[in-house]
Design goal:
By secondary structure, the chain is α+β, with helices and mostly antiparallel strands. It is built from 4 helices and 7 strands. The strands form 2 sheets. The protein has a 5-stranded mixed β-sheet with strand order 2-3-4-5-6, covered by helices on one side.
């Protein structure tokens, strides 16, 4: 069985976060709190290493937090954008991709599941053709940790879902049987072999 093409970029509790922007939930009220965030150069480099890409540039996010009165839930709406540089899985040449994505997340103290994990699962199911169960974000909030919400880490998690795990250069034919397809792992050397002429021809 082919392995999933979606990387798991969640971190264990003891692992330092590459880009941390903690927000005190006591400062989040029923009045929407808008925030604009972007990482430093060193943080962007650390994020790139975590996501397994060459570079992450122009990463920024517009976030709005609001405390839903009577529900004990905090809603986070965000729009992220970034320019990602990766290596083509066939030619190894650099590929620059501009990413823009929107997301919505709910936070609560008593959360048991993470919406990012469910979003990652949905991506995996789409890749394998499985039917996706539609769940309500309010019924599956992310945990509030020590009275804070880390919106920097949240952006990194959702950015990882927008990155193509098998990028191809524009001139590479995705329909070639030798090239990689979603849900299949192949080494760069095997991918380069696919470009060699068949039957010993040098043309």
């Amino acid at each position: 069985m082919a392995k999933s093409s979606v990387k798991d970029t969640t971190l264990p509790p003891s692992h330092p976060v590459e880009w941390s922007v903690p927000i005190d939930v006591d400062k989040v009220s029923s009045t929407p709190l808008p925030l604009s965030i972007s990482p430093s150069d060193s943080e962007r480099s650390a994020v790139a290493r975590r996501l397994g890409v060459t570079e992450v540039n122009d990463l920024k996010a517009e976030i709005v937090l609001v405390n839903m009165i009577g529900s004990h839930l905090i809603q986070v709406n965000g729009t992220l954008s970034a320019t990602i540089t990766q290596s083509c899985v066939v030619t190894l040449q650099p590929i620059e991709t501009h990413i823009r994505d929107e997301f919505e997340t709910w936070f609560a103290d008593a959360a048991q599941a993470i919406p990012y994990a469910r979003a990652k699962q949905d991506v995996q199911r789409k890749a394998s053709g499985q039917e996706i169960e539609i769940l309500n974000e309010k019924d599956d909030p992310e945990s509030i940790v020590n009275g804070k919400i880390d919106i920097g880490e949240l952006v990194v998690q959702y950015l990882s879902l927008s990155i193509d795990p098998y990028p191809h250069a524009p001139e590479v034919d995705d329909d070639r049987p030798e090239t990689i397809s979603a849900g299949t792992e192949i080494s760069p050397f095997a991918a380069l072999a696919a470009l060699r002429p068949k039957n010993g021809s040098s043309e």
